[in-house]
Amino acid sequence: MMTDIFQYYGVDWIAMLFTLVAIYQLGNKQRSGFVLMIIGNSFWIGLGVFTASLALIVANAVFACMNVRGLWKWSRDARGSGGTS
What we know:
Layout: H1 11-27, H2 32-51, H3 54-81
Helix pairs in contact: 1-2, 2-3
């Protein structure tokens, strides 16, 4: 299992890092978390390509769309309420 931690050229580690930081930022109500999550989703999609996992590709494409929607709604709601969150 631990024979080659960079079996996927570090794409899995980068995806994990972006995802963890994004979740942390979203927990702190920072919109940049959505952007980092979309980047993380892109790396997860890349991992799906490396591993030939259609489920990983489709799931993260949907997650990326949901993050785009979240960013759009959060930005729109912040403009409408006069807040800058």
